[in-house]
Design a protein that fits this description.
The complex is a heterodimer.
Chain A lengths: L4 H32 L6 H14 L1 H25 L4 H23 L12 H21 L1 H4 L2
Helix pairs in contact in A: 1-2, 1-3, 1-5, 3-4, 3-5, 4-5
Chain B lengths: L2 H11 L4 E2 L4 E10 L2 E6 L5 E5 L3 E5 L24 E6 L3 H4 L1 E9 L4 E11 L2 E10 L14 E3 L4 E5 L19 E6 L20 E4 L4 E7 L4 E6 L6 E6 L35 E3 L5 E6 L12 E5 L4 E8 L2 E8 L7 E6 L5 E5 L4 E8 L2
Parallel strand pairs in B: 1-21
Antiparallel strand pairs in B: 2-24, 3-4, 4-5, 6-7, 7-8, 8-9, 10-11, 11-12, 12-13, 14-15, 15-16, 16-17, 18-19, 19-20, 20-21, 22-23, 23-24
The chains are: A mainly alpha, B mainly beta.
Chain lengths: 149, 366
């Protein structure tokens, strides 16, 4: 991987992973709420809903993820150079906080109380933040050579 | 036949909504209203208009706006979609002077829709009494419903919303989120409300499974109660409301969330009432009435739905009680329309939704 393109590609892959996983979390959270109301949910319906959200929801979520990661990942990289033993926890935390911050800003700026359905509950919010952590960890892994002190 | 001629012909044959050149004129009757929300006609020719920011205004028959708002109006929680909403006169107003108001009550952290009434006496609301407060109180400032219709049995129905974040509660019979409620005019619960005897159910519920119902009209001739509600992105609905029915939100919908996320994989499910029609993409229906005037004979008995997003009024043609197509009217205004009313003089009245809102009067061109 060319050195200049490496962090960019790492960033893109990190955003794609976090957005795709976040979309899957959003779908499963939403379907769980419907199931609790008595909706019948076969594996086929679940799979189709997950696929539709990957097409319909993931692109917008990717924009939020990218905005959050743009702030969080460089900060995590800078900190991890100074706190090398904490590199992985720092990136995991940064990814989670990036998602939380992006969703909180969107909720504050947009007219609806909560933009993303899963963000309405603690468990849904934590699930989405976990996806941010995984995306950030992927970035840490792929960009590792450049981030060494 | 060339394509430019063929396409409109095909559209009209399919009954698609197309803007029609109508023989009407739109006059500005009154202006200077801050987000006007609801219009009611007094027996003496004057009008009452609510402003969402919390004021109730009197307009003379000639359109002059009384500079002093009606006093005694309960304080509303005003933010985003919250504020003073519907004004409706008691069907026996000439005898009892009761005026009903719906408004958002509470604070940013704890609010919901409230219904109150008072007597209108010389520009003042007196003997104001709270009749109903939707429960639970919730945070945020979205989806209050707020429209009122009177039924012939001395009761009224009040539309409510799901508060946006509480959409699953529209299926919970234990509270008022996402419901239409029916009350006696003094606020008490009618003995024959459909869920009154169901353990754990809110006795005021008349129908459930709604998102944000901002239009309701009782067609006295046909004995039908129509309502419309906002869908999310797509899935705005016109419904025929029947006691105790479940209209499905969020288990079934034609819309998706604003983010593009699925609300439900289903558009129909057994036991859930399908809409008479749905608008996808959304038009954002904000008010519903039926034309019963003499000035536009061709509109007689048709439903009219004001829209915010489409910036129009949808004429929904009815033929023997069945839907017979739609027309999109008044798009030339380019304004969000908050309310549409069939006036006692046969004109159609509109309220425009902005900080310099107007009362518009639609009359025949000649």
């Amino acid at each position: 991987m060319p050195s200049k393109a490496q962090p960019v590609l790492a960033f893109v892959f990190a955003v794609l992973l976090a957005a795709a996983l976040g979309s899957i979390v959003q779908t499963q959270y939403n379907l769980a709420m419907l199931q609790a109301l008595g909706a019948p949910l076969s594996a086929e319906v679940r799979l189709r809903a997950t696929g539709l959200d990957l097409l319909g929801f993931a692109p917008l979520f990717a924009v939020l993820v990218a905005a959050g990661f743009l702030c969080a990942l460089p900060s995590a990289a800078w900190l991890s150079r100074r706190l090398l033993p904490l590199r992985w926890p720092l990136f995991a935390l940064a990814g989670a906080l990036a998602i939380w911050l992006a969703m909180s800003l969107a909720n504050a700026l947009l007219p609806m109380p909560t933009l993303i359905g899963a963000n309405r509950s603690l468990i849904g919010t934590l699930g989405l933040m976990a996806c941010g952590s995984l995306g950030a960890l992927l970035f840490a892994r792929l960009s590792r050579p450049l981030c060494r002190p | 036949m060339s394509k430019p001629f063929l396409i409109p012909l095909l559209l009209s044959l399919l009954g698609s909504p197309v803007a029609q050149a109508m023989d009407y004129r739109i006059e500005t009757l009154s202006e200077g209203l801050e987000f006007p929300w609801s219009l009611a006609f007094l027996p003496d020719g004057r009008m009452l208009v609510t402003e969402r920011v919390g004021r109730l205004r009197l307009i003379e028959a000639d359109g002059r706006l009384d500079p002093e708002p009606v006093s005694g109006v309960p304080e509303a929680f005003v933010a985003a979609q919250a504020g003073l909403m519907e004004v409706a006169l008691d069907p026996e107003f000439a005898r009892n002077q009761w005026v009903y108001l719906s408004y958002a009550h509470g604070s940013e952290q704890a609010n919901n829709t409230r219904l109150a009434r008072g007597r209108l006496v010389e520009g003042e609301l007196q003997d104001v009494k709270v009749l109903f407060t939707a429960q639970p109180l919730k945070t945020g400032a979205a989806h209050y419903g707020g429209r009122i219709a009177f039924l012939p049995d001395q009761t009224l129905v009040l539309t409510l919303g799901d508060g946006f974040d509480w959409r699953e509660d529209a299926q919970n019979p234990g509270n008022h989120l996402g419901k239409i409620v029916r009350l006696n005019r003094d606020g008490s619960v009618p003995a024959d409300n459909p869920l009154r005897d169901q353990a754990g159910a809110a006795p005021e519920i008349y129908s459930l499974g709604h998102r944000n119902v901002q239009g309701i009209f009782y067609d006295a001739e046909a004995g039908r109660l129509y309502s419309h509600e906002h869908g999310p992105r797509g899935g705005d609905e016109l419904n025929l409301i029947e006691a105790g029915r479940n209209y499905g939100w969020p288990l079934v919908t034609q819309g998706v969330d604003y983010t593009g996320a699925l609300i439900s994989p289903y558009t129909t499910l057994p036991g859930l009432q399908p809409p008479l029609l749905h608008w996808t993409p959304s038009v954002a229906p904000s008010s519903l009435t039926q034309y019963r005037g003499a000035l536009f004979p061709q509109w007689q008995g048709d439903l009219f739905a004001a829209t915010l997003a489409e910036r129009s009024v949808r004429r929904i043609r009815l033929l023997d009680g069945k839907l017979a197509g739609e027309d999109v009217l008044f798009e030339e205004l380019g304004e969000r329309i908050r309310d549409v009313r069939s006036g006692p003089d046969g004109a159609l009245y509109l309220l425009t939704d902005n900080a310099k809102g107007r009362v518009l009067k639609v009359v025949p061109a000649d």
